[in-house]
Amino acid sequence: MKFVKPMLVLALLSGCAAQQPKDSAPEEAKLVATQQFLPQQAYDAEGNKLPYEPEVNPYLEQTGTISKGSVLLFIEAKKARKRKDDETAEQKLEVITRQDPDLAGPYVMLGDIRMDNKDYKSAEENYLKAISINDENVNAYLGLGEAQRRLGKYKVAQNTYEKALTVWKDFPEAHLNLAVLYDVYLNLPTKAQAHYEAYLFLTGKQSGKADEWYQEVKSRTGIEKSFIDPGFSKPADDKAEKADDKSA
After folding, report:
1. Domain assignments of the chain as residue spans, ordered by start
2. How far apart are CA 42 and CA 229, in angstroms?
3. Which CATH class is domain 67-169?
4. How far apart are CA 181 and CA 167, in angstroms?
5. Closest Cα to residue 75, out of 13, 30, 147?
6. pTM of the model
7. Contact 92, 80 (CB under 8 A)
8. Which of 157, 147, 161, 204 is nearest to 185 (CA)?
């Protein structure tokens, strides 16, 4: 029996509209540019701010069909995860991967389970498998970047977040994770500041941990200008950008 997926199931299981898989980043990766993904505040002719229209997550726009059995198994796996019964969750998910191998969502949840159990290599493999099935699954990129960071592959993780933003440039969590990576692991505070600001701008948050991190890194860079709002201050500080590029 087949039926059209509702939005919740689509967000978790979609793989039917997959494109060709992307190649994973090499171990000896070079940092790629990410400033082109920063949202920009626009103004009208009178200098008034225009509402920002973020891009829609393309993953949630995918449509297709999926078997009722796989949907029910996935729901059972989610319930098992909530009970912290990872063994049962994995069993349910592995049945789905055998019955419906073209679904990416089960591999993302398998990756999440392996992350919780600190099996980062296996988690990385599951996220890569999910992406190979559906390269618009933004959740898979987010998990993959985290697994790679835990494995000490910081530049590879940066490339993964860049790919996530290539799929969806207004992905708030990708901007935040990228900012933390730049800030803590790659010693690129200017780039970190820009992506912290992007996260705060996209989510509308004005307080919380992300804002604290943004304020802290800003105190270190000494850059008061906005990377998002050209009406707030002058363009990017060339010296600060060059300092980041030199340390990369």
Report:
1. 67-169, 170-248
2. 8
3. mainly alpha
4. 19
5. 13
6. 0.83
7. yes
8. 157
